[in-house]
Design goal:
mainly beta, globular, 9 strands, 3 helices, 3-stranded antiparallel β-sheet, single chain, 172 residues, 6-stranded mixed β-sheet
Length: 172
Amino acid sequence: MQRDPLIVGNIVGDIVDYFDASARLRVSYNNREITIGSELRPSHVANQPTVQITGQSRSLYTLVMVDPDAPSPSDPWKREYLHWLVTDIPEGVDVSHGNEVVSYERPRPTAGIHRFAFVLFRQTVQQVIYAPGCRANFNTRDFTAFYSLGAPAAAAYFNCQREGSCGGRRYR
């Protein structure tokens, strides 16, 4: 029996509740598509990724990118740290066609191995979504409840640690 990597990586649980995917989310850095749970270095993710969505035709989507392990996995008191927020992304095109509410901030983990999660929501209506007051202590569940976004349509994540570090993430 294959276990869901979003559950194994605690993306489901720490950031979102369990959901059934209704879209496909492709995230690529430097023309290299990430696989769920892959290991990337900060130098690999310095530039904004290409993100493509395949889902329901004529739908709009909202993308949230967060670090639930900020400032360190052993003491994530800034959980969740918002790295990117884009709304009104049309299905079938790159995220650059959406409305960037919070600009991309490259991952710069200082301690431990951090998970960087991309969570995609299908919008039921086009609406104005405002940037939060700060990036630290963002809460994906509260955000989606406030804007009535519902369950995620798709999610992906990668692991990242500072350059020169070694080791791997252990799962419970």
